[in-house]
Amino acid sequence: MTDRLLRIDSIDTRYGESHILFDLSLAVDRGEIVALVGRNGAGKTTTLRSIMGLTPPTNGTITKDADRLDGLDPHEIRKRGISWIPEERRVFGSLTVAENLRLAAHSGDGDQANRFEEIYAQFPRLDERRAQKAGTMSGGEQQMLAIARALLGPETDLLLLDEPSEGLAPQIVDDVAEIIRELNERGVTVLLVEQNAEMALELADRAYVLETGEIVHESTAAELLDDRETMEGYLGVK
Ligand code: ATP
């Protein structure tokens, strides 16, 4: 039996008159890393915006566990354990690591002091750099801080990551992949949006390919990596 965490069922999403997502369905089981890959402009970010309630679908349903998410405000969706890291990462460059984390924790309930120590234990590199301004850190370290920020506030069991490898050198991409793997091993389920299909597929259990707003392929990540036709045809990977 599968343990379904997130289910998107036949959604359509529009920006005003522009129809972007067409009858899109996908599912993420608890404990999985699922990759959503596709070319520039395919609608990957719009899918994440739809889940978070930022660009709500005009029809179809989104559920997490037994809860309907579509129609809820983004902060209500955040409270249901879903956290989103946008492409731009959203760290405050002129603030220190500690200040960035304190700001992120502000909206949370419960004992945040313990949470900081948990986060520092989980990310020793941030611990060493508590007093460093985030803008002076490497891209990989900033991504680590963005992930740490996303884990503060309400308890998170599903992380939506938008292009975590963007703009990073290959070595750093490997570091970020390792962070995602470790998080997953600690029980966080991940929906990973990537243009870097190879990075995403090496990390993921299952994958969906999105092309102009439609899911055109669904399989295990390993099967997709071996499927040269789909890799070349939809993802431009030679
Ligand atoms: P990328 O990797 O380039 O961000 P993507 O797969 O994430 O691509 P989206 O950002 O979801 O794609 O964009 C899907 C389509 O929606 C594109 O054609 C884009 O131009 C359009 N789009 C995105 N945001 C808006 C907006 N605010 N208003 C109108 N159209 C938009």
TrEMBL record:
GO terms for molecular function: ATP binding; ATP hydrolysis activity; branched-chain amino acid transmembrane transporter activity. GO terms for biological process: L-amino acid transport. Keywords: Amino-acid transport, ATP-binding, Nucleotide-binding, Plasmid, Transport. CDD domains: ABC_TM1139_LivF_branched. The keyword Nucleotide-binding applies. Residues 6-237 form the ABC transporter domain. InterPro entries: AAA+_ATPase (IPR003593), ABC_transporter-like_ATP-bd (IPR003439), ABC_transporter-like_CS (IPR017871), BCAA_Transport_ATP-bd_LivF (IPR052156), P-loop_NTPase (IPR027417). Pfam families: ABC_tran. Belongs to the ABC transporter superfamily. This is ABC transporter related protein. It comes from Haloterrigena turkmenica (strain ATCC 51198 / DSM 5511 / JCM 9101 / NCIMB 13204 / VKM B-1734 / 4k).
